[in-house]
Here is the input.
Amino acid sequence: MSVIKAALLGFGTVGEGVYTAIHSHQQQLNELLGVRVEIVAVLIRDKNKKRDIESNILVTTDFEEILNIRDLDVVFEAIVGEEPGYTYLKQAIDKGIHVITANKVMFAKYGQELIHKAKQRNVKLAFEATTAGGVPIIRTIQRLLQVNRITKVQGILNGTSNFILTKMRENKLSFEAALHLAQQKGYAEADPTNDISGKDAFCKLMILSQLVFGEQPCWSEVKIEGITSISQQQIEEKEHQGQRYKHIAEIYKEGKLIKASVKPIIVDSNHPLYWIEGVENAIALEASLVGNITLQGPGAGKMPTASAMIEDFAEIVQHQQLQEKIPALQM
Here is the structure.
């Protein structure tokens, strides 16, 4: 049986999730792809930190060591922030290595450039995990875009802020108490600024904008409003009226202009995102032929995000296998 060699860039929550998923689903991958998936290297920042990684795997702080691995097929990138992820992915693509990323901050800014570079080098770049964790929105949009014209996207793209708003309503908690609960459960970081300010959802929205419209709005013109100013009293008042606050990222075209925002919106039970609770993510699409579609699922966390990256990986391998068969079929 042939072997696919993979490297992990980052071994935090997502990187460890990919490592676990490949080991736990090795049989399914073998049956589906007819290959054995072998993690041959892991890039880390701190060599002194204890990690549960098999001893035969290269663990390094030097990306050059990973690039020099013979016949490396794919890298899973799960690094936080623009750098060094952007530089690493450029180098991997230049060496003809397939890339799967979960780095939303980096991809919102450099995604189009990396996609173009990957096409030039005839390698695949997959990014399902950048936008809504385990919700297959990227793949769905790519399929719909073959014929449908998507006119509007609305989404709850951050599970932390959605969890906070849900607990403020259900448990009658203050914002501070709900945030503390989110941190206790591991849904919010020690510094939750990007989640509660809307910056995390904004990066995901820009990725969706590029995918849906082929361009992004001017970032400085996008209204970004967080959830910190919403009081428990306001939430309770709207609840009595059959309404709920939802932190919604929205993008649509008005003429030739792209309009985008991330802000709290009051919705009633007729809205497709009204029922999305807790750490769930959901995206509502309006399209020219199919009409309205809503996808819902776990938006973050170790295994949902790893699931998105593994599904991307399976698709890349299947595409490569198909390409290898075509010349034989034409003979």
